[in-house]
């Protein structure tokens, strides 16, 4: 059996409170988003998303460092060149990755 039409149109009291709470929370989220946009517009720092494959960059850094170390060992270059390995590795990463 179907309840009378008056009961179908008005939601229960608990549901009204829940809907009102959802409306209030949505308004608060919208307000916080506006504040965040204002803060970002005042900031001089650019927010860039992180790279998708950070693990690939780490693996490439390890591989370049290892290869350079082996090259210096094979060529029997002076120890002072070992200091340059991290700098060369960082430059390769900056330019190619």
- Poorly predicted ranges: none
Radius of gyration: 30 Å
Structural class: mainly alpha
- Oligomeric organization of the protein chains: single chain
Largest sheet: none
Name the average pLDDT.
Answer: 76
Tell me the distance between the termini. 68 Å
Give the tally of structural domains.
2
In total, the number of strands is: 0
- What is the overall silhouette? elongated
Please write the string of helix (H) and strand (E) elements. HHHH
User: What proportion of the residues is helical, as a percent range?
Assistant: over 70%
**Discrete helix count:** 4
Strand content: under 5%
Q: What's a quick, concise take on this entry?
A:
This protein has helices spanning 5-9, 13-42, 54-75, 84-96.
Word description of this protein:
- By secondary structure, this protein is mostly helical.
- Helix 3 (54-75) crosses helix 4.
- The protein has helices at 5-9, 13-42, 54-75, 84-96.
- It is 72% helix and 0% strand.
- 2% of the residues are buried.
- The longest helix has 30 residues, at 13-42.
- The radius of gyration is 30 Å and the shape is elongated.
- The protein has 2 domains: 11-42; 54-96.
Write the topology of this structure.
Elements: H1 5-9, H2 13-42, H3 54-75, H4 84-96
Notable features of this structure?
mainly alpha, 97 residues
